[in-house]
Amino acid sequence: MGKKKNKKQAPGTIATNRKARHDYHILDTYEAGIALVGTEIKSLREGKASLVEAFATIDDGEVWLRNLHIPEYSMGSWTNHSPRRHRKLLLHRREIDSLAGKVRDGNRTLVPLSLYLKDGRVKVELGLAEGKQAHDKRQAIKKRTEEREIVREMGRKIKGINA
Q1: 159 lies in the same domain as 88
Q2: Those residues with Cβ within 8 angstroms of residue 134's Cβ, 6 or more apart along the chain or in another chain
Q3: pLDDT tens digits for range 17-26
Q4: Same domain for 28 and 45?
């Protein structure tokens, strides 16, 4: 009956790709609709999806989401969908043209950051990303650790004053 929800996700969020922000510098984000079939929607409303290996490509002026895993709907029949099929993303023409130019120019890719429900429709937060080098990842981890230590020390000092 009661569903277990990840505490770090927003209320309408179905899935997030937390590894993407670790592996890539996110330069810009876009909100895109996604073309789905009925059993996919039902499976997503149950909160089942995985963005772990997902990425987006631009083919013939259309944006496609690949490797998004939406498991088959448990109550479905022979009409069930293929779990890893390619799904079309819905963006405005000028956004697609802009993204195509940015991806073509350099070392950039399109990575889905999250999948969520908005006004009853499934949306994908798509990030224009540039790959991080190993030393960049180490720097980010070091910075995060230092910030955590500062917050911890400030908490100790405040508790020492109040005691």
Answers
A1: no
A2: none
A3: 888 787 888 8
A4: yes
Number of domains forming the structure of the chain: 2
Range of the domain at 158: 133-163
Q: What tens digit of pLDDT does each residue of 103-112 get?
A: 887 788 888 9
What CATH number has the domain bearing residue 81? Answer: 2.40.280.10
Same domain, 127 and 140: no
> Whole-angstrom distance between the N-terminal and C-terminal Cα of the chain?
44
- The torsion of the CA quartet 30, 10, 51, 113, rounded to 10 degrees, works out to 30
The three-state (H, E, C) secondary structure of 65-120, written as one string: EECCECCCCCCCCCCCCCCCCCEEEECCHHHHHHHHHHHHHCCEEEEEEEEEEECC
Task: Tell me if the pTM is above 0.85.
Answer: no
> Chain centroid to CA 127: how far?
8
